[in-house]
Amino acid sequence: MSGIYVLGAGGHGKVVISTIRAMGLEVEAVLDDDRSLWGSYLSGVEVTGPIDSLRGKKNPKAIIAIGINHIREKIATRLDEVEWISAIHPSAVIDGSVKIGPGTAIFAGAVVQPDSTVGNHVIINTGATVDHDCVLEDFVHIAPGCHLAGNVSLRRGAFMGIGSCAVPGTTVGPWTTVGAGGAVIADLPGNAVAVGVPAKEITALPSKRNR
């Protein structure tokens, strides 16, 4: 495999680079739309230009290293010619029955248990756990130390904050955010923010299409 382009020059990008290197693969360059970062280095890799500079390259391989879910979706949609690579740290424990979509990042110490399904461009962050028969739809992000019990469903673009959890059989609606330390004990609707123990909806958000 030729070098992988990492899209996003923030802190999340550092972890993605570390994960790719732990896999024994090479990072070709970092791309970011912030002009002030061009020519700088992220974890020893040069930031060479904007994300759209991938266009015209022959069979580029890349991963989106941006933690904000709707931004990952926008980038993935506009760069349909890219071969999306998943970055899975060797220390992650993933059962052989788990299905993982392209562009997904699973970081050090994460655990994904049998018959779970992980969609495209998902982030399972450091030390997070996903128990049996969970469904994480496209563009989901579960933050470090998040714990999902069995049969939990996270709909498209849902975000689980650091140290949050969900009890068995619960569903978090699309583009909903569960705050840090929140405990999901009942289903949550889409386009909402929920915080606390138990996690309760505090506000409705505009539809993702309006963001």
Automatic annotation (TrEMBL):
Substrate binds at residue 67. Residues 4-79 form the PglD N-terminal domain. GO terms for molecular function: acyltransferase activity. The keyword Transferase applies. It comes from the Bacteria. Acetyl-CoA binds at residues 141, 162. CDD domains: LbH_AT_putative. Keywords: Acyltransferase, Transferase. InterPro entries: AcTrfase_PglD-like, Hexapep, PglD_N, Trans_hexapeptide_repeat, Trimer_LpxA-like_sf. The keyword Cell cycle does not apply. Gene3D superfamilies: 3.40.50.20, Hexapeptide repeat proteins. Pfam families: Hexapep, PglD_N. PANTHER family: ACETYLTRANSFERASE, UDP-N-ACETYLBACILLOSAMINE N-ACETYLTRANSFERASE. This is Sugar O-acyltransferase, sialic acid O-acetyltransferase NeuD family. It comes from Dethiosulfovibrio salsuginis. The lineage of its organism: Bacteria, Thermotogati, Synergistota, Synergistia, Synergistales.
